[in-house]
């Protein structure tokens, strides 16, 4: 028997009554398991086999496959599931976590960033937009691809701190000084947003509420980080379109 503290990232129906679960284990990263009979009306495993279900899961192993036998639920994030803005933000978080697990051994911080972001929404302490902005900022920082801020991503000079806007290059990976900006493709972004991005990237998951950007800056952060992840990691988030349709 194996026990793992997990959150369900996604599920797929299998055979007549089973489900295949993709879970994020706090200690072991991604886990795939079969939940026999989980789709039966009276199944004791039904609640534990839904995306966002979180708790202690027990498995047995047979022929290199894991089968779910029991689960002690800690949280279902009921309020998140019943608020479209929050739920769409949560879906982006689950998809991103699923894609990033294979690229990192730092399971603990990614897991905590996900859980604390969900709890902040569940407890109505942050909107879906603000929680997602933190999660994106923190995961980019932990993946080691945080953009250059305060120094030019091209020449390394300090960027001017005057004015309300800054030049940012997705291709070069960060802020661009006034000398280099005319020679490469840049976009204009808010300096306040970049400052907030840096704060969120450095903030521990436990400090998410204090570190979170305000609503307007969070929206700008999400837009920038979505394109940044696509450019730096060729990572496209399918769930982002549903979040964007409602929230952005």
Automatic annotation (TrEMBL):
Domain of life (superkingdom): Bacteria
Keywords in alphabetical order: DNA damage, DNA recombination, DNA repair
Protein's UniProt name: DNA repair protein RecO
Keyword Metal-binding tagged: no
Biological process, per Gene Ontology: DNA recombination; double-strand break repair
Domain DNA replication/recombination mediator RecO N-terminal, residue spans: 3-66
The organism of origin for this protein: Christensenella massiliensis
Origin organism lineage: Bacteria, Bacillati, Bacillota, Clostridia, Christensenellales
Matches recorded under SUPFAM superfamilies: ArfGap/RecO-like zinc finger, Nucleic acid-binding proteins
Gene name for this UniProt entry: recO
């Amino acid at each position: 028997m194996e026990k793992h503290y997990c959150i369900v990232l996604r599920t797929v129906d299998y055979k007549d009554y089973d489900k295949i679960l993709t879970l994020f284990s706090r200690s072991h990263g991604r886990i795939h398991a079969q939940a026999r009979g989980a789709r039966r009306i009276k199944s004791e495993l039904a609640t534990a086999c839904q995306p966002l279900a979180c708790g202690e899961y027990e498995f047995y192993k047979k022929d290199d496959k894991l089968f779910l036998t029991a689960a002690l639920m800690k949280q279902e994030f009921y309020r998140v599931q019943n608020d479209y803005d929050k739920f769409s933000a949560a879906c982006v978080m689950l998809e991103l976590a699923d894609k990033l697990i294979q690229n990192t051994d730092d399971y603990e911080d990614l897991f905590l960033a996900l859980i604390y972001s969900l709890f902040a929404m569940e407890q109505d302490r942050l909107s879906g937009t603000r929680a997602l902005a933190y999660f994106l900022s923190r995961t980019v920082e932990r993946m080691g691809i945080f953009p250059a801020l305060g120094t030019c991503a091209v020449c390394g000079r300090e960027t001017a701190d005057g004015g309300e806007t800054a030049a940012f290059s997705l291709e070069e990976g960060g802020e661009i000084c006034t000398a280099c900006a005319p020679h490469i493709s840049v976009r204009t972004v808010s300096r306040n947003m970049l400052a907030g991005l840096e704060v969120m990237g450095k903030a521990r998951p436990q400090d998410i509420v204090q570190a979170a950007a305000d609503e307007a800056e969070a929206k700008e952060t999400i837009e920038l980080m979505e394109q940044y992840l696509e450019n730096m990691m060729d990572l496209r988030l399918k769930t982002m379109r549903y979040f964007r349709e409602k929230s952005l």
